[in-house]
Amino acid sequence: MSEAAAIPSASDASTASEQALPVIRLPMLDSKRELFAYEIVFQDDAEDEATLMRRALATITDGALARLVRGNRTFLRLTHELLMEETDVLQHQPRFGVLLQPEAAADAALVERLARMAQRGCPLMLDAGDTTLEFNPAVEPLLKIVQFVRLDASKLDPATLRSRSEYLHARGTHVVAGHVDDHDTYHRCESLPLQAIQGQFLLKPEPVAVPVLAASRLSLLRLMKALQEGNPGPVELGQIVRDDAILSYKLLGCVNSAYFALPRQLKSVQQAAIFFGAARLRNWIYTMALSGTGDRPPELLRAALIRAHMCEKLAQHMPAEQREMAFTAGLFSLLDAMMEAPMDFVLWHLPLAREISSALLENKGPFAVLLEQIRAWEAGNLRGGEVQPQVIRRMAAIYLEATQWADHVYAFADQRPN
User: Fold this and answer.
1) Same domain for 401 and 348?
2) How many Cα atoms are found within 13 Å in the side-chain-facing hemisphere of 98?
3) Which residues contact 411 (CB under 8 A, 6 or more apart)?
């Protein structure tokens, strides 16, 4: 993949791109598939690990990291040196906790330090992986002080995952299943005494023998089809959504919010389409409409919104029309998971531009390159030494902006009129 094709040159990197932490937030979902906590994962950008983590602690102090995770419970990994020297900030931020490796149990001084942190309200999670925990003296010092343990569901057979979860639960420890990357594993985890589940299952459609769309989803696809056919202008967009009071309410509430700082209030969808442009408003109607798939995890729609915004920003070197299409490609890249149906089946209902459908179905074309870059970022696969540091800094800035935008827009997409 060509970096130049996927990302604007480093010369246009702003101050924000130099300051943004190269991190991603990974959700852990509870039994209702609501957010339980985020994990902050550092991208490898060739920066000194201790320096990077000190920057993370500084962003906790100034509130930047709290804004990234919307004030939710959050876990991050810190070096031994930082845990011993600079963790006072965590004792004043009870929503931020620390992920620990089993080897930490061998360091008596560190365990003592961690015990004091736990007593003062700092959440601690042992990232146990597939380490044996039952009656294991090597990890017992940590098990006595941590509130949470994460098990690696990809490395443990079902029987061991169950017995270990039950053992920890009986001790009064909250259990998180990590690396749950397929729906079979997810469904096995549903019957276990778990506090949360984390993994790539969230971004994947559940396999079905015969895809069937519920009436609400067919209605949503009909709306999307109407938004695509005939390249509707401002008047036509207003007519398409005029009978959906909730959709109009969400849309106008969002565009008139302080985030966009408009010079005047827009009172109709037609006015909004004239002000922002029909193509952009059409994308926002997609966004608000997709929130109607209310049985899907909220973090899934947030992930789609982040992809959409990142894709649009990565397409800044393209013509304006293609930038709008890039947004659609990013948003629709998770349409199969949101609709719980195969991508080809869903797109059969939509007359999308060839460039978008090629990216989503065949992984071809200019938008496929952008989506590949975003997926690599989500997976933490942009490695220092393999990718230029300025590229990672630029991606960090785009990701930070995308999360802020997505969280703001989702707040309106999720609301209902009084």
Assistant:
1) yes
2) 31
3) none
Tens digit of each residue's pLDDT (9 = 90 or more) over 193-216: 999 999 999 999 888 777 777 778
- Paired sense of beta strands 23-29 and 35-42, if any: antiparallel
Question: Are 169 and 244 contained in the same domain?
Answer: no
Q: Lowest-confidence range among 12-21, 119-128, 248-257?
A: 12-21
Residues 287 and 322 in one domain: yes
Which H, E and C letters describe the chain, residue by residue? Answer: CCHHHHCCCHHHCCHHHHHCCCEEEEEEECCCCCEEEEEEEECCCCCCHHHHHHHHHHHHHHCHHHHHCCCCCEEEECCHHHHHHCCHHHHCCCCEEEEECHHHHHCHHHHHHHHHHHHCCCCEEEEEECCCCCCCCCCHHHHCCCCEEEEECCCCCHHHHHHHHHHHHHCCCEEEEECCCCHHHHHHHHCCCCCEECCHHHHCCCCCCCCCCCHHHHHHHHHHHHHHCCCCCHHHHHHHHCCCHHHHHHHHHHHCCCCCCCCCCCCCHHHHHHHHCHHHHHHHHHHHHHCCCCCCCHHHHHHHHHHHHHHHHHCCCCCHHHHHHHHHHHHHCCHHHHHCCCHHHHHCCCCCCHHHHHHHHHCCCHHHHHHHHHHHHHCCCCCECCECHHHHHHHHHHHHHHHHHHHHHHHHHCCCCC
Residues 97, 174 share a domain: yes
Last residue of a domain, one of 203, 223, 239: 203
Domain that holds residue 155: 3-203
| 209 found inside a domain | no
Could you report the per-residue pLDDT of 104-143, keeping only the tens digit for each?
999 999 999 999 999 988 999 999 999 999 999 999 999 9
User: Between residues 73 and 229, which one has the greater pLDDT?
Assistant: 73
Distance in angstroms (rounded) separating the CA atoms of residues 166 and 173: 10
292-321, pLDDT tens digit by residue? 666 789 999 999 999 999 999 999 999 988
Residue 140: give its domain's CATH number: 3.20.20.450
* Residue 43 burial (CB count, 10 A): 23
Of 203, 238, 265, the one marking the end of a domain is: 203
CB 180 within 8 A of CB 186: yes
179 lies in some domain: yes
211: amino acid identity, one letter: P
